[in-house]
Design a protein that fits this description.
By secondary structure, the chain is of the alpha/beta class. The protein is built from ten helices and 16 strands. It has one domain: Aldolase class I (TIM Barrel), CATH 3.20.20. It has a 14-stranded mixed β-sheet with strand order 1-2-16-15-14-5-6-7-8-9-10-13-12-11. Helix 1 runs parallel beside helix 2, helix 2 packs parallel to helix 3 and helix 3 runs parallel beside helix 5. The chain is globular and about 55 Å long.
């Protein structure tokens, strides 16, 4: 196997080691986990500049010819579902609404996979104008990234004054039937005091709120464990205004621990990626916008599936590459390990 230096994660070409791997079509790794959830980043571009994700100037643009085309994305998604056991597909970015052919991607996947759940993670900007078209194309539901409903706080975190557009997008998504709507909020010291207000908004908007511990995936590499807000910190703040009773996870692979709010049925979730890691139950496989396979958010090991596609590889060849990539997945993210080094790519470049 050769390794190509690109000033970014090492991109591997050739077939990964399959030593000891059982003969199974599924995306099995050495620790017995099977990937059922595919995350597909379709662009590095974004309409916001969230401090925990992107630098102020944005990410370096990916040349158009290096992006996977809509046809290539559809081919890979269909192959993953039909031949490798993927059960759910989520489109991410950057910001997926920055792709003009998003409806074509959704529609192409839906035409081939009528029963596969198709979801999208978005910041919601512009969603009010496309929600119905996306639903008609076959999108099932959305997650919206929203860290605060305080206008000044939103501007400080995102470097953009676009809160009204996000709220309008959430409303339009509900009207278009892109439900259940989930709102993802990253926990920062800047927005902790507004956490209860955000939960109140989500309860009124019939959206399920999920708080996420800040992870070392920021482009500026300023994350520090000592500065992060933990799940325990959040529960203390929310508990001062709401009565929370533990509800557990919906299923073992769901990263969110859930609490009933004021007796339910509404819930709030906390994804404690750092302090209560769930690596042992991880069921995700990732495809970047420039056609790299990643087995883990925190691994800099990537496999070049775009090169295989464009060199005429068969579906069997591509599936073998994908299975090998997942077979070599690491045991966990290693944030607590001595000498931990954050990945070269930020969250915006990997895909959520």
């Amino acid at each position: 196997m050769t390794v190509i230096a690109m000033g970014m994660p090492a991109v591997r070409s050739g077939q990964p080691s399959m030593d000891g791997r059982p003969d199974t079509p599924f995306l099995l790794d050495r620790y017995g986990r099977i990937a059922r959830d595919l995350r597909v980043s379709i662009t590095e571009k974004c309409s916001l500049r969230c401090t925990y994700c992107m630098p102020e100037e944005g990410l370096p643009p990916i040349p158009v010819h290096e992006l996977l085309s809509s046809a290539e994305i559809v081919r890979l998604v269909v192959l993953a579902v039909r031949e490798m056991g993927i059960r759910e597909v989520r489109f991410t970015g950057g910001e997926p609404l920055m792709r003009r052919d998003l409806e074509d991607i959704i529609g192409g996947c839906r035409a081939e996979l009528p029963d596969t759940p198709l979801a999208m993670t978005t910041n919601g900007i512009g969603l009010e104008h496309r929600a119905r078209k996306l639903a008609a194309a076959g999108l099932g539901r959305i997650n919206v990234s929203l860290d605060t409903v305080d206008r000044d706080g939103f501007y400080r975190l995102t470097r953009r004054d676009r809160l009204d557009s996000v709220l309008a997008g959430i409303s339009a998504a509900g009207q278009a039937g892109l439900t259940p709507i989930k709102v993802n909020a990253v926990l920062m010291r800047e927005n902790l005091s507004g956490a209860a207000d955000l939960l109140k908004y989500c309860l009124e908007a019939n959206a399920e709120l999920r708080f996420i511990e800040e992870m070392p995936l920021d482009a500026d590499h300023e994350w520090a464990r000592a500065n992060m807000i933990t799940a325990a910190d959040l529960l203390e703040v929310l508990g001062a205004r709401f009565t929370l009773t533990e509800a557990g996870r919906e299923d073992p692979s769901d990263p969110a621990e859930r609490w009933h709010v004021d007796g339910g049925p509404a819930t709030v979730g906390i994804i404690a990626s750092v302090t209560r890691k769930f690596c042992s139950d991880c069921d995700r496989t990732r495809l970047t916008a420039d056609g790299r396979l990643r087995s883990c958010l925190f691994s800099d090991q990537e496999y070049d599936i775009r090169a295989a596609l464009r060199s005429g590889a068969s579906d069997d060849d591509i599936a073998a590459l994908w299975r090998g990539a997942m077979w070599n997945k690491s045991a966990g993210h290693g944030i607590d390990a001595a000498g931990f080094t954050p990945p070269e790519r930020s969250m915006g470049a990997i895909g959520g």
